[in-house]
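Working notes for the structural subgroup meeting. M.R. asked for a predicted model of this chain before we commit to crystallization trials. I am recording the input and output together here so anyone reviewing the notebook later can reproduce the run.

Input as submitted:
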Amino acid sequence: MSKHVLSKQGHLIQRLTQGRLIRRLTQLYVGLAMYGASSALLVEAGLGLEPWGVLHQGLAERTGLTIGVVSIIVGAAVLLLWIPLRQRPGLGTVSNVFVVGIAMDGTLALVPEAHSLAVRIPLLLTGIVLNGVATGLYIAACFGPGPRDGLMTGLHQRTGRSIRLMRTAVEIAVVVTGYALGGTVGVGTVLYALSIGPLAQLFLRVFAVPSASDGSTVVATGQPRRAILRS
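Returned structure, recorded in token form:
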């Protein structure tokens, strides 16, 4: 094979690799921003939040901080728990801590308060579906799990217990604590718990990024699919 042909192939591979990286970065930050926006819609709906959202809202009620700022603080605190669990954060992990909270507060500042059920129910449903889309986007970007995702997988690896059990135990504790602090638990919490798994799996396939080598799609390489949860 001539040097000219090899050079053209090298340039093509480089362009494909750069294009894939740009797509992954776009998915990561669009997904995280959408996640924060979807969480804000659940707050506005007032019909029940996702498990970690209940805790964030409860802490916000007690501290006077915005729910977005509380989300950032909790995310950073959870990330510190990765140290004894020997988990390694990625770009997506660190970005998750800040982007979700900022997007949440920004959306809450823009969206007017909803009072009637005719508005609150569509807000709830939109928030849940948008959350599933966002989860598929940022996880499929393969830049590392969110702080809370890594906590689940870290506990799984350290204890030998199933991810499902670890997730259930932690989220029950989070919901109970958040509710005791004043967070909103309701029909939205149950609907979110039942629907987020199927929605996230659907959109993980939709937004799977083609691999650089053969054009096939790879979904969230190295991340357990059963560990999808609030991040």
